[in-house]
Design a protein that fits this description.
Strand content of chain B: under 5%
CATH architecture of chain B: Orthogonal Bundle
Strand content of chain A: under 5%
Helix content of chain A: over 70%
Number of strands of chain A: 0
Order of helices and strands of chain B: HHHHHHHEHEHEEHHHHHHHEEH
Number of domains of chain B: 1
Number of helices of chain A: 2
Radius of gyration of chain B: 22 Å
Shape of chain A: rod-shaped
Structural class of chain B: mainly alpha
Largest sheet of chain A: none
Distance between the termini of chain A: 78 Å
Number of strands of chain B: 6
Helix content of chain B: 55-70%
Largest interface: A-B, 35 and 40 residues
Oligomer: heterodimer
Distance between the termini of chain B: 72 Å
Chain lengths: 70, 467
Amino acid sequence: MNTFPYDSFNEAVEAAGGYSTWGAPTGTNGTMVFLALIGIAISVFSAVMVTLREDALLNHAADRLAEKYN
Amino acid sequence: MDIAAVATDGILTEAYYYFTVAIMWLLHVGFMTYEAGVSRRKNIMSTAMKNIMTIAVVTPTFYYVGFWVYFCMQEGLKFTGTPDGNGNAGEAAYYCGEGYVVPWDASMSPNIGDNLTGVFWAAFVLFSWTTGSIMSGSVLERIRISAYLWLTALMGGIVWVIAAAWGWSYGGWLTIHFGYHDFAASGVVHGIAGIFALGVLFNLGPRIGRYDANGGTRAFKPHNLHLTLMGLMIIFTGFYAFYAACLYIQADTTGGYVNIYFVPATLSAITFTITMAFAGGFAGGYIFAKGDPFWTLSGGLAGVVAVSAGADIYSPSLTFVLAFFSAGLAYLAGNWIEQKARIDDAVGAVSVHGVMGFWGVLLLGIFAGGFPASGVVDVKTSFLGQLVGAAALIALAFFTGYIASWILKKLNLLRVPPEVELEGLDMAEFETDFFPEFGRADEPIVNADGSEEPAAGVLQGAYRDNR
């Protein structure tokens, strides 16, 4: 029934101290650092873009409404 | 304990946290519903969007920075990472260097050798969202969504985490030196969020028309109070999971659970506490607010917040009494903040979370002084320890909230333009009416003397007076 090599897999994981995606099991590895930096960059970029887009929308609306409220 | 039992313990803890996380989502469903209901019709979607986007900004901030801060900054405003309080250099490297919970470490990856870090992280993330959602209600109807997101990323991703590192960990300096005890986060979640919001409100200012020229306070009517009350009830449901997530299964040494300070506790005890606190809080809210629906339900929340610090050790009857009177205090404090201090806190969060949070921290020192505060070092709870903790956390929360919002204000990025506020944020932010089949009825406003009139003229007059 079982086709997955549980025994050898578990032995390999135990020998390595665990596993993590795309690289060495523990400690720093370049790919994971790179992915983390991309994630951080996207987070900051998104926040800046939300800020700029909202600023433009609000200024546009304020200009449009100025006559009504002044 | 044999290896198989330890493994089962780990899997049980993993499942336990996973389901507390799932149920804690209800907190955020509730916050969104609650705040949308409080808003006027013209601001509903902008209000809800804040709650949704809280998840988008706080989660990565906590993943990339916050969790590391929790383990690394337990000895104060320094990166030492010695959570046993013994200055162990090896642990410092592990918690502050290339080791545990650094975003590229195996602990923050799918690792079949680690069942716990992911679910433990997620429980903290849900607490982080909660701090943001608490602030969200205070500032609604005039803050820019983007400003709120920067502020909530700061508070939810970093500031409250520093507070938790100091006073909500077994190695925090408040814990090991002062015996600070805050089981379900009266101070480190509710208090921090409420006081941070207070710092923001000083710079944000009140909604146009909130106060009249004679010093009187006007009231805006929620567009759907029933929705608000339902949101609060959903929040209360999520609170049970919040409480449960403050425990840790440690069956191998205690036969049950420990709190975050590694002192034995039980799920049964906190179930007594939270349920009796809701009952006492509802009763107190109803009595002190003379049947006001909003403050009756907010009284329940205030009661729970006030007893959360000692929820693992209070007797149910003590909980009931404390919650009853705390609800009354929250009502009085809320009115004082709104009417005397003239701080426009749209949902009373500064009172219910900020004041009640630190009030609860002090109550613990009065009613549970002398209790073992840590399972790691020999230190007892005390009123002085709670006082020191409250003072440190209030300063941390207020000044970070004030300074961050002051910077946004100077950049003209904190508040929406007044014309947009008068017209409603939704039409400016989304350029569409989300209720096209329903016309916009005249918005009412309640004057300081209790009389009602159409808001349009009042708001326009207030706008012109303030220009």
